[in-house]
Amino acid sequence: MSHGKIRYKVTIAGKIYTIIGARPEAHLKLVAETVNEQMRQIESLSKDLDPERRAVLAAVNAISDQFDMQIKLEELQNKISEMEAKLKENQE
């Protein structure tokens, strides 16, 4: 385990996985719990899907959420830049 990486065992959808990462254990635990919850939600909505398809849908949801958050972050960064420009104009 180099570079500060830790190994963390989690159970997702009834199977045990080992996650290796440099994030704190609490972060890895939260990620695993979130994935597990998404898998349960997808299963409750589509009981006929096999675990692999549920996992793909969970990944699609995660990437979609990531894109949404990236767009929101860029919008906020633009607003901050606009406000900083206005503040600079007012100070001159």
Folded structure, characterized:
The chain is α+β, with helices and mostly antiparallel strands. Helix content is 67%, strand content 15%. It contains 2 helices and 2 strands, in the order E-E-H-H. The protein has helices at residues 25-45, 51-91; strands at residues 6-12, 15-21. It has a two-stranded antiparallel sheet with strand order 1-2. A hairpin with a 2-residue loop joins strand 1 and strand 2. Helix 1 (25-45) packs across helix 2. The chain is elongated. The termini are far apart.
Which secondary structure elements does this structure contain, and how are they paired or packed?
Elements: E1 6-12, E2 15-21, H1 25-45, H2 51-91
Antiparallel strand pairs: 1-2
Helix pairs in contact: 1-2
Name its key features.
2 helices
